[in-house]
C-alpha cells in the first residue's frame, strides 16, 4: 500500500495476509455512525469547511503512523548474542572482583552499542525522509469542483473518482460505474477481478451497510467509477485486518550475502573459541580468564560494526541519490541497483521529453480536420467538468491543452455512455448525442486496433499513417458510426466503424538521453525499449539517440514464440512494441532466465507485473499507485541520467562494504589465530580479554569512515556480487601473512626486550592495531595504493587517528587500568620496519591473489533467486508491496 507522511512522521499502509471471507463494510462504519448517517453524496461533494471539520474528527487516511525513534533502534543493537554475552560477562567479572576488566568491557559495550545506534538511527532517518517524498494522489469532488488531493487527506463523505490502475483509497459506496472491475485478492485471495455495479439505496438504509462497495487496498483492474467515502484509515475493512499485523520484508540478495558471510565467521569463531578454551583449561589457567579470553577471541574475529558500516554506506548512498532525485524505498535496494545488467524501459518521458504536444489532426475528408480534433476530445474516459479535463491520460491532456483545440464545440455533445480504455482493446469509446440530434459511437485508440474495426480504410489514409510513423510521431486514430436509439455501450459495439482521421502528437527525443545511454553502456548496462507505441516510431527515436537498433518484436510476434524461442531472440532484440502487461512480464522473466540481473522502468498499471518480475522495479513519482507500490525505486525525474547515478552508487556501496569484509576477515583471522597459537606456549595470556576488545573497538571505529572512501573506476564498471569462496580464500591467504608479523612481534618482545606480561600485552596491542588498520590502504584497491588510487581524506584521518590512539594509550594515565606499560623507543623503530615490510608483502600477495583464478570457478548462484521470490511473495499476498514497511538492514545481519 502507499505511504503518506506529514512533517517527520511516516505513515504506512500495511498489507494484510489474504482472508477467505470479507464482510461488506458495516464493521468499518460502526466506528463513525454519527458521521456516516449524514454522508454527503450529492454531485458537488463536501464543502472545504466540512472537510476540515471531518479531518479533525477522523484524522489522516492512514492505518499506522510512526516516527524514527531512538529507543527501538538502540534496543535492536542489544539483539546481538555476543554483545549480550559480553554484558553478562562484565557483570560476572564485577561481582567476582575483576572490577577493572568489568569496567573496561562495560565501556566497550556501551561504546559499541552507541556507535551502532547513532549510525542506524541516521540511516532510519534517511529512509524516513525518502518515504516522506513519495505521494499518492486521488481525484475528488469538493465544492462542486474536481481536484487532485493527497490520499491521506480523504475523509468520510468525499466523492472519489476511480480509474484503471489506481488503488481504491478508502472504503467507498459506489455511486456510478462504467465497466468497473476491482482486483480484491489483497482481501480475498481470489485472483479474478470482481465486476462492480450500482444499486439504489432504499430510503432509511445506512449507506455503509449496503453493497456494492469498493474496498480500500483493492485495485481498479478495468473501467471507471465514482463513490462516496464511508470509512478511512483503520476504520476500513482493510485497516481492521491490517492494523494489528507486523510485517517484515523478505531479504534482498545483499542481505543474504551478509548473512552467509556472518555464518562463515560464526563457524570460524566457534572453532577458535572452543579450541582456545579447551587449551587454556588443559594448561590449568583460571576458568574465568579462560572463558573471557575465549569470548574475546570470538568477538575479535567478528566484525561487530559491520551493520553500522553497511548502514552508514547505505544511508550516505541514499542521501546522495535523493539529491539526484532517486528515492530508494528500502535502503538495501541501493546495492541491487548496482547489479543491473539489462534495463527495460518505456519510451515516453525516458527516451523522449515526455512533454507530449498535439501537432495536428489529419482527416480522411478534406477540410474536416477540426471535426477530428473535436471527436477526439469528446472520446475520453477522463472527467470533463466545466470545460476542463481531469484525470485524462497524457495524450488526452495534450489534446485538451492545445491552443487551437475546438473546446467550444464540446459543450454541444452529450456523453451518454463510456467504454473505458484497456490494454487488450487499446481503444476507448463513447456514446454521444450530437448537436444535430443524431447519436454516435466514437472510438479512439491505437491505429492498428481502430483500423481493424473499420469497414474500409482509404489507401491514402494508410500512406499518411506510415509517413507519420516514419517521422517518429505518435498517432491516434479516430473512427465513428451512427447509433440511433442505442443506450448502452459494449466491446461488440466497436465494429462497422468509419475512419474519421488521425490525431498526431510530438514527443521529441530527450537531449540528455544520448549521454545517459552512453554512460549506462560504459557501466555494462544494456538498454532495451518496451513500449506501447508503434515499432517504427520507437526505432526512429532509438536511432536519434544513438541506441543500437537491433530486431523489433511486436506483441503478436511474442505471443507466437515459446519461452525458449523468446529467450533466444533477446540477444538481438532491442525494441518490444505493442505488448500487453503479461507479455512485458514474460519478456523480463525470459531475460532473467539467461542469468543476468534485470531492471524494469515503468509507470503504468500495465507495468505492474513486469515490475514485480524484475530484479529491480523502477517507477516515477508521477506513476500510477500500483506501479509505484510495485517498484523498489522511485525516480522524481524520469531520466536515465539519475538512474545511471543509482547504478554507480549501488556499486560504490558494495565495493566499500567488501573493503571492510576482506580486511576484517583477513586481519582479524590472522590476529586471532596468532592469539590462539601464542596461548599454547606462553605462560600467560598473549593479551588480556579487555585489551582484545578495546583493540577491536578502536579498529572497528576507524572503519566507520570506509563509506566515505573513493572507489576505483574499474570497480564501478561491472556489477560485483557476494562470493563466499573468494572471501574464504582471501582469509586463508592474508590471515597467515598477518600472523607472521604477530609472531615476529612475539619474538622481538620476548628475546629483544625481554618483556614481562604487561609489556608483552602492550607491544602486541600496538602492533596488531597498527598492522590490521593500515593494511586497509592495500586492500581497498587493486591498484598501487597512494600512487594510482587515493583514499578519502576522512578515511585516512580516521585510520591514522586509531593507530595514534593505540600508540599513545600506554603513555597515558589510563595505562595502568588497562594493563599497559610504556614501550621502549626501540620498539617503535622495529614496529615501523615491520609495518613497511608487512604492507609490501600484502601488496605483493594482493597482486598474486587477484591474478590467480580460484581453483573452483565461483559461478554465479541464482538458485535462491531471493529478489524474485521476495517480489512474487508480495504480489501473491497483497497485489502490491508496502514501500513504507521496511525493515532496517541491520536486522537481517549476522552477529
Name some characteristics of this structure.
single chain; 895 residues; alpha+beta; Calcium-transporting ATPase, cytoplasmic transduction domain A; Calcium-transporting ATPase, transmembrane domain; Rossmann fold; eight-stranded mixed sheet; seven-stranded antiparallel sheet; 33 helices; 16% strand; disordered N terminus; disordered C terminus
List the helices and strands and how they pair.
Elements lengths: L2 E2 L5 E3 L13 H4 L3 H4 L11 H11 L5 E3 L3 H8 L3 H15 L3 H34 L4 E6 L2 E6 L8 E4 L8 E13 L1 H4 L5 E2 L17 E2 L4 E13 L5 H6 L10 H30 L4 H15 L4 H18 L2 E3 L4 H6 L3 E4 L11 E7 L5 H10 L4 E3 L2 E3 L3 H8 L12 E6 L7 E7 L5 E7 L1 H6 L6 H12 L3 E9 L15 E9 L6 H10 L3 E6 L3 H10 L6 E4 H6 L2 H7 L3 E5 L3 H12 L5 E4 L6 H6 L2 E5 L4 H6 L2 E3 L4 H39 L10 H14 L10 H4 L7 H29 L4 H18 L1 H4 L13 H16 L6 H4 L6 H27 L14 H13 L17
Parallel strand pairs: 12-21, 12-24, 21-23, 22-23, 24-25, 25-26
Antiparallel strand pairs: 1-2, 2-3, 4-5, 4-6, 6-10, 7-8, 7-9, 7-10, 11-26, 13-20, 14-15, 16-17, 17-18, 18-19, 19-20
Helix pairs in contact: 4-6, 5-6, 5-10, 6-11, 6-25, 9-10, 9-24, 10-24, 10-25, 11-24, 20-21, 24-27, 24-28, 25-28, 25-30, 27-28, 27-32, 28-30, 28-32
Amino acid at each position: 500500500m502507499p505511504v503518506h507522511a506529514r512533517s517527520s512522521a511516516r505513515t504506512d499502509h500495511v498489507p494484510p495476509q489474504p482472508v477467505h471471507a470479507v464482510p461488506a463494510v458495516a464493521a468499518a462504519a460502526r466506528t463513525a455512525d454519527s458521521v456516516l448517517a449524514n454522508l454527503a453524496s450529492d454531485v458537488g461533494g463536501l464543502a472545504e469547511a466540512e472537510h476540515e471539520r471531518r479531518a479533525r474528527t477522523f484524522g489522516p487516511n492512514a492505518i499506522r503512523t510512526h516516527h524514527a525513534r531512538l529507543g527501538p533502534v538502540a534496543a535492536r543493537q542489544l539483539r546481538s548474542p555476543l554483545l549480550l554475552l559480553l554484558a553478562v560477562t562484565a557483570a560476572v567479572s564485577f561481582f567476582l572482583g575483576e572490577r577493572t576488566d568489568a569496567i573496561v568491557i562495560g565501556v566497550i559495550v556501551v561504546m559499541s552499542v552507541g556507535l551502532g545506534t547513532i549510525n542506524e538511527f541516521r540511516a532510519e532517518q534517511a529512509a524516513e525522509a525518502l518515504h516522506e517524498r513519495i505521494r499518492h494522489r486521488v481525484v475528488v469532488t469538493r465544492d462542486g469542483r474536481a481536484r487532485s488531493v493527497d490520499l491521506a487527506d480523504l475523509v468520510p463523505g468525499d466523492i472519489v473518482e476511480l480509474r484503471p490502475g489506481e488503488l481504491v483509497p478508502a472504503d467507498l459506496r459506489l455511486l456510478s460505474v462504467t465497466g468497473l472491475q476491482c482486483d480484491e485478492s489483497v482481501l480475498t485471495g481470489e485472483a479474478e477481478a470482481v465486476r462492480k455495479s450500482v444499486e439504489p439505496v432504499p430510503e432509511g438504509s445506512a449507506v455503509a451497510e449496503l453493497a456494492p462497495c469498493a474496498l480500500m487496498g483493492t485495485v481498479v483492474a478495468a473501467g471507471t467509477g465514482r463513490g462516496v467515502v464511508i470509512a478511512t484509515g483503520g476504520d476500513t475493512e482493510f485497516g481492521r485486518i491490517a492494523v494489528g499485523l507486523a510485517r517484515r520484508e523478505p531479504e534482498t540478495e545483499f542481505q543474504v550475502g551478509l548473512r552467509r558471510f556472518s555464518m562463515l565467521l560464526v563457524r570460524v569463531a566457534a572453532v577458535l573459541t572452543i579450541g582456545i578454551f579447551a587449551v587454556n583449561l588443559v594448561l590449568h589457567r583460571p576458568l574465568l580468564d579462560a572463558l573471557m579470553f575465549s569470548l574475546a577471541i570470538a568477538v575479535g574475529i567478528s566484525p561487530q560494526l559491520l551493520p553500522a558500516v553497511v548502514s552508514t554506506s547505505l544511508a550516505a548512498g541514499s542521501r546522495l541519490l535523493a539529491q539526484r532525485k532517486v528515492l530508494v524505498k528500502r535502503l538495501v535496494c541501493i546495492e541491487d541497483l548496482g547489479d543491473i545488467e539489462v534495463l527495460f524501459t518505456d519510451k515516453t518521458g525516458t527516451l523522449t521529453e515526455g512533454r507530449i504536444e498535439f501537432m495536428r489532426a489529419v482527416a480522411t475528408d478534406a477540410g474536416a480536420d477540426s471535426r477530428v480534433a473535436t471527436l477526439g476530445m469528446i472520446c475520453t474516459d477522463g472527467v470533463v467538468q466545466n470545460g476542463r479535463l481531469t484525470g485524462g491520460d497524457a495524450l488526452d491532456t495534450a489534446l485538451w491543452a492545445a491552443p487551437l483545440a475546438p473546446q467550444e464545440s464540446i459543450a454541444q455533445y452529450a456523453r451518454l455512455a463510456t467504454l473505458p480504455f484497456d490494454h487488450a482493446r487499446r481503444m476507448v469509446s463513447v456514446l454521444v448525442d450530437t448537436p444535430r440530434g443524431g447519436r454516435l459511437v466514437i472510438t479512439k485508440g491505437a491505429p492498428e486496433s481502430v483500423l481493424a474495426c473499420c469497414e474500409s480504410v482509404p489507401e491514402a489514409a494508410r500512406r499518411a499513417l506510415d509517413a507519420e510513423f516514419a517521422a517518429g510521431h505518435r498517432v491516434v486514430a479516430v473512427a465513428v458510426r451512427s447509433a440511433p436509439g442505442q443506450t448502452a455501450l459494449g466491446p461488440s459495439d466497436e465494429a462497422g466503424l468509419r475512419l474519421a482521421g488521425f490525431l498526431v502528437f510530438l514527443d521529441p527525443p530527450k537531449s540528455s538521453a544520448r549521454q545517459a545511454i552512453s554512460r549506462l553502456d560504459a557501466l555494462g548496462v544494456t538498454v532495451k525499449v518496451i513500449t506501447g507505441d508503434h515499432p517504427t516510431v520507437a526505432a526512429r527515436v532509438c536511432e536519434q539517440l544513438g541506441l543500437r537498433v537491433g530486431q523489433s518484436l511486436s506483441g503478436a510476434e511474442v505471443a507466437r514464440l515459446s519461452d525458449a524461442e523468446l529467450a533466444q531472440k533477446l540477444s538481438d532484440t532491442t525494441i518490444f512494441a505493442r505488448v500487453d502487461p503479461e507479455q512485458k512480464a514474460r519478456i523480463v522473466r525470459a531475460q532473467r532466465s539467461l542469468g543476468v540481473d534485470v531492471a524494469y522502468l515503468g509507470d503504468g498499471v500495465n507495468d505492474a507485473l513486469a515490475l514485480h518480475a524484475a530484479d529491480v522495479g523502477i517507477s516515477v513519482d508521477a506513476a500510477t499507485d500500483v506501479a509505484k507500490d510495485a517498484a523498489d525505486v522511485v525516480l522524481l525525474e524520469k531520466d536515465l541520467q539519475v538512474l545511471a547515478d543509482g547504478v554507480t552508487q549501488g556499486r560504490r556501496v558494495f565495493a566499500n562494504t567488501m573493503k571492510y569484509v576482506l580486511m576484517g576477515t583477513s586481519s582479524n583471522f590472522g590476529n586471532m589465530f596468532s592469539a590462539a597459537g601464542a596461548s599454547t606456549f606462553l605462560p600467560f595470556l598473549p593479551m588480556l580479554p579487555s585489551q582484545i576488545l578495546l583493540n577491536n573497538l578502536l579498529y572497528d571505529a576507524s572503519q566507520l569512515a570506509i563509506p566515505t572512501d573513493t572507489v576505483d573506476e574499474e570497480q564501478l564498471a561491472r556489477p560485483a556480487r557476494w562470493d563466499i569462496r573468494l572471501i574464504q580464500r582471501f582469509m586463508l591467504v592474508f590471515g597467515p601473512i598477518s600472523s607472521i608479523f604477530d609472531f615476529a612481534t612475539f619474538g622481538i618482545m620476548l628475546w629483544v626486550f625481554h618483556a614481562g606480561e604487561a609489556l608483552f600485552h602492550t607491544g602486541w596491542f600496538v602492533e596488531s592495531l597498527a598492522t590490521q588498520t593500515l593494511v586497509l590502504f592495500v586492500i581497498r584497491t587493486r591498484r598501487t595504493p597512494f600512487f594510482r588510487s587515493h583514499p578519502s581524506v576522512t578515511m585516512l584521518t580516521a585510520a591514522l587517528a586509531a593507530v595514534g590512539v593505540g600508540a599513545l594509550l600506554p603513555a597515558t594515565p589510563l595505562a595502568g587500568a588497562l594493563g599497559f606499560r610504556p614501550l621502549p623507543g626501540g620498539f617503535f623503530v622495529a614496529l615501523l620496519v615491520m609495518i613497511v615490510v608487512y604492507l609490501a608483502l600484502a601488496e605483493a600477495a594482493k597482486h598474486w591473489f587477484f591474478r590467480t583464478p580460484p581453483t573452483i570457478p565461483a559461478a554465479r548462484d541464482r538458485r535462491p533467486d531471493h529478489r524474485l521470490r521476495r517480489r512474487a511473495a508480495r504480489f501473491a499476498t497483497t497485489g502490491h508491496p508496502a514501500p513504507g514497511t521496511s525493515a532496517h538492514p541491520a536486522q537481517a545481519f549476522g552477529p
